[in-house]
Design a protein that fits this description.
alpha/beta; about 50% helix; about 250 residues; 2-enoyl-CoA Hydratase, Chain A, domain 1; 6-stranded mixed sheet
Amino acid sequence: MSISTEIIDGKIAVVTMNYPPVNALPVAGWFAIADAMDEAGKQSDLRVVVLRAEGRGFNAGVDIKEMQRTTGFDALVGANRGCYAAFKAIYECSIPVIAAVNGFCLGGGVGLVGNCDTIIAADDAYFGVPEVDRGALGAATHLSRLVPQHLMRTMYYTSRTIAAADLVPHGSVLEVVPRAELDSASMAVAQEIAAKDPRVLRAAKAALNGIDPVDVNKSYRFEQGFTFELNLAGVADEHRDEFVQSGKNLSV
């Protein structure tokens, strides 16, 4: 289980999530993504990052089983801080970040891709934020970067998912390709970006972040406050226990 980085042609960093069976990340995994993004941004020769995953799906969010087998609130606080750090590091990475999404992208996975600069998806990819079903809140900030407001609200309340192909008309997913072509399609866009002057790319990333209408870091942190309230009230524990007892394979 790991977050690994491979450097391609001295210009492209490929960060891979590999946490079988469903890439539901433990606390350490979220911080490892943050570290990988921070490190990529510090390397002056790098011009773009590709965030991808091995296995059945891109990301199933937080490892709820880790949270439920940990006494006290250490795992909860760790997951909240880790997600915040990972999302923030992607958004603030000094070079563009491309998400290459396969299969499911749920909960915290939406937080990751919502802060990326470009999204390429496989034809089996779908997105959703089932936090309401888990007694938690979060990632509406990032879902709202993928779909319009009213659709975001409906998806949030109902925990519905949306296929990658349906996001192309919204402009949030650049293209959808067969699963076998996902890596090559993502690399093609990465190489197109990597051909640019790295000084201009870094200035462009800072400029685009500077004109964003919503401060995604503060917005997400605000959401997390309601998650803590639900946990203190015992509501979130009830839903997480039910999820673990159900034996489902996907965590969010």
